[in-house]
Amino acid sequence: MSGEQAAAAGRRESVSLLVDCDTGIDDALALAYLCSQPQVELVAVSSTPGNVAAEQVARNNLSLLELCGRPDVPVAIGARAPLRIPLTTTPETHGPQGIGYAELPEPRGKVHDVDAVELWVEAARSRPGELTALLTAPLTNFALALRAEPRLPELLRGVVIMGGSYYYQGNTTPTAEWNTHVDPHAAAEVFAAFGGLPEERLPVVCALETTERIELTPGHVAALASEAACTEPELVLPEQSEGRRSTASNELVRHISDMVRYYFEFHRHYGQGYVAHIHDYFAASVAAGTARYRTRTATVHVETTAPRLIGTTVADFRGLWGEPPNARIVSENHPGEAFAELVSSLGGLARRLSDTTGRQG
Description:
Blueprint: E1 4-5, E2 15-21, H1 25-35, E3 40-47, H2 54-67, E4 75-77, H3 91-94, H4 116-126, E5 131-135, H5 140-148, H6 152-155, E6 158-162, H7 178-182, H8 184-194, E7 204-206, H9 208-211, E8 215-216, H10 218-227, H11 251-269, E9 276-277, H12 279-288, E10 293-302, E11 313-316, E12 327-332, H13 335-357
Parallel strand pairs: 2-3, 2-5, 3-4, 5-6, 6-7, 7-12
Antiparallel strand pairs: 1-10, 8-9, 10-11, 10-12
Helix pairs in contact: 1-2, 1-12, 4-5, 5-8, 10-13
């Protein structure tokens, strides 16, 4: 859709989400944000290997959902590896457990006994036209779901993908973004499945050129803690020693602070400053209907063979290939609005959880 999409003013429209993630610090922030949105129904959360192995992803998801007051949401595992190549994880970016310095409580719940792919397919078949897929991980599980049910593009209400980079420097190789690089064959299958569909059925793609604009700073962490009514300011600063742990009075803020400190340090190590690109939060806000953005239709190609270019995504915006579009790529977003939304909503959730449970330490 080429026109501008805007978050609804006042009462927001209800949305039912199937979420697939590889949690991951930015996935964790995205999932916590969704938990803060009362109009969002989390139908299921599936766990894809990427930032960490699938079992650790599932543990992170279970713990975070319980921490955010959503223990009822089913968490499932599907694939344990990419479709055709070995799994690459990224402990240097997200930490050995995928959540930076945070040590989330041991989850009480268990992984759903139904495979993630089966869970997604049955949910889509039982609620045609109702569910939106939010994909913030390598597209392995979604590709497998499309193999099991090729009608998914018609059964789903919509699809939002975080992945790729289009005429923009990659964050894993000079040309490739992380999610697409981990499983390029899955990404190629997913985009191929949408070729020739009506424009409104095409996935909305949040790629690096817009997600790297969603740049978290220490000031945002301090504002989040203030919104959560923490008893002391939450200062995560570049001059502090690396690995310092938060003592915030609010439990959710404390864990988020420990996650993002690790992410700040990673970005600084790679010359990007004491900031953090929270890619997946932006995609979550698009799926939740709370972000304002513009898109451009394109035909996406994913490179799967050339060794130095594997995972590279190329967009034909002008129809030069003579092939039908298969994606709507976000071309404009609004970081200031995104962070005002995040601080207000996630800070409010943290405050409510603290008021409900009485846990301040």
